[in-house]
Amino acid sequence: MIEKELVPAFRSPRNTTLQRHFAFCIQELLRISGFTPETIAEDVSSRVAPTHTLKSRWEKFSKPCIEAIRPLLVTRYLIGKSEVQPVSYPLFQKVESFPHWLETWTRDLLEHKMNTSSKAFEIFGVCKCVITEHDLTVPLFILPHVILTILLGGPDQLESERRRSEILTEILAVLGSSSKPKSGNIELDEKNQRASQMIFTLIDYLSKWVRMRHQLVNKTRAANARKAGKLASVDELDADDQTRIIDEFLSKIPQDIMAIVSYECRSYERSLLHLERHVRLQLSLKNHAPLSGLYEFCQRVYARMNEADAMEGISSMISVPSLEQQVLEHESTGNWSSAQTGYELMIRDNPDRLDYQVGLINCLRNLGHFESMVTHVGGILQQHADWSGELESFRAEAAWRLSKWDLLEESLDFDVKPSFEKSLGRSLLALRHEQEEELYSELRLTRTSIAGPLTVSSLESYERAHAHVLKLHMLCEVEEWAKLWQFCEQANENDVLFHVEGVVKQWESRLSVASSSYHVVEPLLSLRRTLMDIGLAKSALLEWSGVASKLEEQRGLAWLQSARAARKSGYLSTSYSHFLNAASLKSPAVILERCKWLWRNGENHRAIVDLRGALDKLKGDKVEGGIIESQTQASLGSMGAPLDRMSDLVKSKLALARWLDETRTGHMQEILDIFKETLTEAHRCEKVAFQVGKYYLKLYENERQKFHNRKSSTTSQNQGYETVVALLGYVIRHFARALTYGSKYIYQTLPRMLTLWLRFGQDHGLGPDESANADGRDKQFTQAQSYIKKWVSGCPSYQFLTAFPQIVSRICHKNKNCSDMLETIMVKVLQVYPQQALWQMMSVAKSNNVLRVRRIENVFSKVKRDRSVAGYPLDTLIEEFKRLTQELLNVCNHNVPSRETVLSIKTEFRHLLRLTPTNVVIPLQSLLTVSLPSNSQATATHKPFPEEQPSIMSFHDEVEVMTSLQRPRKVTLTGSDGRDYSFLCKPKDDLRKDARLMEFNTMINKLLKKDSASRDRRLYLRTYSVVPLNEECGIIEWMNNTTGLRIILNKYYKAKGMAVSNVELKEIFLRIDKYEKSGKRAEYKRLFESVLERFPPVFHEWHLDMFPEPRAWFAARSAYTRTTAVISMVGYILGLGDRHGENILLDETNGDCVHVDFNCLFEKGRYFERPELVPFRLTQNVVDAFGITGIEGVFRKSCQVTMKVLRANKDSLMSVLETFTHDPLVEWSKGKHDKNGESENDQANRSMAVIQKKLDGLIQSITNQSSSWVPLSVEGQVQDLISQAMNKDFLARMYIGWAPWY
């Protein structure tokens, strides 16, 4: 308070009297705190505890602050008492301005203190002299603290209740006034809005205090239990009298009024929070009459928030949407053509509605129909001249976008309220007329006008601030263009051309890191075209034909970029008009964009014919020598691309080859010829090599299937063998090339290439017998091996780490050429990244399989005399890893007495303690997960891991033993960075499943990030480090700030008195089991529904309690919904079961849903004594926390996007999972080992086959395992899975430990 609030005000007073008041306030607060000249000057040797504490507190002040307050330690300012004026509540309507209201209310609260002995009021009391409407610094800061103190009450209960009532009356008066429509009186509207924001701040403070109070009570109870040697109960929702008082007070504030006021103040997350609370209240009262209006209100809120998925969800809850509701949904989803039609219909019936007219103009604006926009605005203003203040900014924007300067000047002549569009128009006019002073003055004023809203919105989120950042971006480019032409006044044409190219290159680089959204890109591109027009006019005057030609080219490329962005966003009519404007650009890019537009529009045949014809013509022109494609290298939207980027000609050929393949309208040889041309024309291009390899892979898989079909027959067993192995060689060759050129497609190429190569080396059954075609097979394998060898020698070592588990799992490959190459790869990785490699190799080094251990030791022996990048011998590091791994295994396997909850490292694990400090890096996920370069230029110099990699320095003595079945142990260590890190040592659990799943999930996160729809929705899986130590033990990175779902729900049900004893639940489920076995489906379903009624959903309350601030609440709920959707889809694909409430954690810092314990994979739950019938957990509480839309909207759409990404990358995902077939789990003990130690396992193969079918979009009936698999679309597959997960018939038959009623 002193440093951040009082000292700044003291240094910049409005008058000397106020400065003396601030001096007195600081003086008294220093006195109350105990600061004196003696205490702060105390010598270190003579310190006692109190003065030492004061000295430490004093030193926490900043140096400028100390300079300001030190003199006040000895001053003796005095302030006379002021006369207290009695007030009556409510105050709000009786004062004219917000500052006067805030001063009056704060002063009155301080005058009527509840407890004279309260330290808080002693502090607040000295602040009364600086509470003034002329400086709101102090009242804004202390009002929430004062109100909290008063609400908590004093010894006089009646007086306390009276003061609480007065505060509530004042809050309701503010909300009541602010909930009314705006009056048009600027002063009154400003007063209402500022007062409402003050109330919001107050409510947020009280809600946050309640949360912190709960945490404090829980922490105190846990500490007391720990001192007593007991485990504190974690399933109780602690509350004391003080929290109950505040909760009761907050409950008296009407949620519907809060929602309305928040919406008017543009605090949309807050509005949604209170609106949903009000909806839930109406549902609990079974009052369904107002729900339709409330859902419509939700639509408006989501529309303002640009939450298209949520809008879709809330719209599904309105059975018969009105035309206005349909328009809102179209706007939210970007369907501007349909929204335009809706507005036209509404205007037909209500032509005098300004909001409808503005909505229609916005549709035209977003569709890029600026000519129509100008015409429409002009027509409206002829009938409603009084609307000019709202509409002239639209006309000004259309004018500068169309370079209609006369119209722009006419629009700017109107004296209407300022807007960014009009300010930008004035800047462009000044630039065109070379009025430098006016230009820079306008730019400065415009930036100043943006600064305020930018500051406010940036406090909420970057998304809210983005629109203002985009405006600053546009102003920056106007200024850069102006400076360029100022330079041109003294330069020749060649110099100008050089600088134009420099500015354009800078713009392209800047745009390459901006959002790809059409509504972000188009304003910038439109501005650039206008600036090019201004430059063309200047070039014409100076007769600079070269500059003019360059500007025309860039102008055309900007049109193409707009066309591409519009097409990708689904605005096909807008895209069409854009590429028509680019027709003057003589480049294959124009043809390609037009054909892509045809393809997107469903005219596939015409797109192929036109593109093929254009390429044939271009080829003929080249043969005749009549054309030189100087613009071939112009990039269509790939700004900032690396030097080896593809030309538009190559892009066109790749598109043609892909379309011919997809539509099956081209012969294989024609497609291959096109690919060969692209390989010649685009040397060292990763994408070309990848696409060619991908096509060869498709041919290989088709031919291989044909070959095996023939092989099973009695005739023509050798036919097609040469084709199969030749195609396999081509696949390996081109995938290896792609990996050499870059890492963009590494997850699509590397796992698949390794699988094909290793299968080729292993598969002696390609021919009909061992001797047939042996020479040909050896020759083809030797060729493939040479491609692999060249790739291994040329690519950076970090590439291997993306598939290192796959490489290590095949260490016992029976083909010596393959096993030797695998060893070479492991040696190469060990030499460069020993820490990351060793953590993944230790589980094999400690394996129960002797052959696997022997192979790993052979790798270690090859590198032991090398020195790693860290500068110390690798043999030392390897031995450190071995000893540390063995000691951690000892911790896992230590026999713990049943009642023991804490172990001591000093007592039980002395050898572990003696190992520290070590050079071993802490196995955090952030240190073990490789990052990839952003482009191919950075491939060689890329650093895949953080610079700082803390190592293990020491272990905490206390080891906490968990209460679960296997008694895992929580170990905490200290890193070389001084921070503490915790890990869970798990015994009797094959963590290779968990580790592989984390690798699988990491790969999925990369794929989700690459997909635009997924990236826009921020879809991801929460992952953490899992390190197997052998086949039976391992360590898991501890996730701080997480709580189990069961614990959370138990707390709320106990607090509400809804808990049901385990005995009673067991009795109910025994009856359900009895009814099921006797075929009485209706009875057991009715009984299960009776259980559900006793546990009404409560999980949404956790988000409200943990995230009381509305923006944090909405962000946390969105994160929870999306992470739940992603893990649900991934879990289904992998057959993940046993998703009971202890295996699902919630992150208390951001709301993420985190799943743990992946022991039940690959449909294992289907074979329990009571089989699991649901694909994932989607019980009533899980759905309850999604919000009032439930599964509709955000959850469903996130599921669909995730499933689409999984299905599109099925080959890569299957290649990663293939490690299970070669490094089988302990539970798959029936696997066979050949003499070389390579594993073959039928159970693993069957599991992989099921996963493959799921990724192919096939669904199997749950009730009939023998039924056929039915193919479904992504949407159909997701719908079927959701239906299964929520099926009460299936839920009723789940085992009781799964807690299906939760």
TrEMBL record:
Its EC number is 2.7.11.1. One of its GO terms (biological process) is DNA damage checkpoint signaling. Residues 1270-1302 form the FATC domain. The keyword tRNA-binding does not apply. SUPFAM superfamilies: Protein kinase-like (PK-like). It is found in: Nucleus. Its main location: nucleus. GO terms for molecular function: ATP binding; protein serine/threonine kinase activity. The keyword Kinase applies. Residues 257-847 form the FAT domain. It holds the Pfam family FAT. It catalyses: L-seryl-[protein] + ATP = O-phospho-L-seryl-[protein] + ADP + H(+); L-threonyl-[protein] + ATP = O-phospho-L-threonyl-[protein] + ADP + H(+). Residues 955-1270 form the PI3K/PI4K catalytic domain. Keywords: ATP-binding, DNA damage, Kinase, Nucleotide-binding, Nucleus, Serine/threonine-protein kinase, Transferase. GO terms for cellular component: chromosome; nucleus. It is an enzyme of class 2 (transferase). Belongs to the PI3/PI4-kinase family. ATM subfamily. PANTHER family: ATAXIA TELANGIECTASIA MUTATED ATM -RELATED, SERINE_THREONINE-PROTEIN KINASE MEC1. This is non-specific serine/threonine protein kinase.
